[in-house]
From TrEMBL:
<keyword id="KW-0677">Repeat</keyword>
<dbReference type="Pfam" id="PF01657">
    <property type="entry name" value="Stress-antifung"/>
</dbReference>
<dbReference type="InterPro" id="IPR002902">
    <property type="entry name" value="GNK2"/>
</dbReference>
<keyword id="KW-0732">Signal</keyword>
<protein>
    <submittedName>
        <fullName>Cysteine-rich repeat secretory-like protein</fullName>
    </submittedName>
</protein>
<comment type="similarity">
    <text>Belongs to the cysteine-rich repeat secretory protein family.</text>
</comment>
<keyword id="KW-0964">Secreted</keyword>
<dbReference type="InterPro" id="IPR050581">
    <property type="entry name" value="CRR_secretory_protein"/>
</dbReference>
<dbReference type="InterPro" id="IPR038408">
    <property type="entry name" value="GNK2_sf"/>
</dbReference>
<feature type="domain" description="Gnk2-homologous">
    <location>
        <begin position="14"/>
        <end position="120"/>
    </location>
</feature>
<dbReference type="GO" id="GO:0005576">
    <property type="term" value="C:extracellular region"/>
</dbReference>
Length: 144
């Protein structure tokens, strides 16, 4: 729930990031960071593609024993271009806060990205779409 004196519907808010990261470092950190970067670009592109409901989720096998799971999501009031800009701005924090980390999350009011080495979203199959995802209602309340 958000309350504000300014009209904010349909406007990306990237003013105050919240950054959470795993304190454990990844094995093979440079290769891990490269795999994360490629995966995050993929989920960001998926999130803004038509028909995905501003949600992107993918996984990639890093080693025989390690799978990286990633998620990118925007609030449903944004247009795809605004979502893309919001998600793109989250990635600027990756070199400083997420480098070599086993997991990291950057959250704005309007969008968020996250990757981990454990499954944290459902369904795990990124191709299985949630049939209820396209069904939503928007209510705008104007003060009198």
């Amino acid at each position: 729930m958000r309350y504000d004196t300014d009209y904010f519907i349909g406007q990306a808010d990237t003013s105050s990031p919240v950054i959470l990261y795993n304190v454990n470092n990844a094995t093979g950190p440079d290769a891990f960071d490269k795999a994360v970067s490629k995966l995050m670009n993929k989920v960001n592109s998926e999130a803004v593609s038509a028909g995905n409901g501003l949600l992107g989720r993918e996984k990639t096998k890093f080693t025989q024993y390690i799978t990286i799971y990633a998620l990118a999501q925007c609030t449903r009031d944004l247009q795809p271009l605004q979502c893309a800009q919001c998600l793109s701005s989250t990635l600027q924090y990756f070199p400083v806060y997420c480098s070599h980390r086993q997991g990291c999350r950057v959250l704005y009011i309007s969008c968020m990205v996250q990757y981990e080495i454990y499954p944290f979203y459902f369904p795990l199959d990124s191709k299985a779409k949630n049939p209820g995802a396209a069904k939503y209602a928007t209510t705008i309340v104007h003060p009198h």
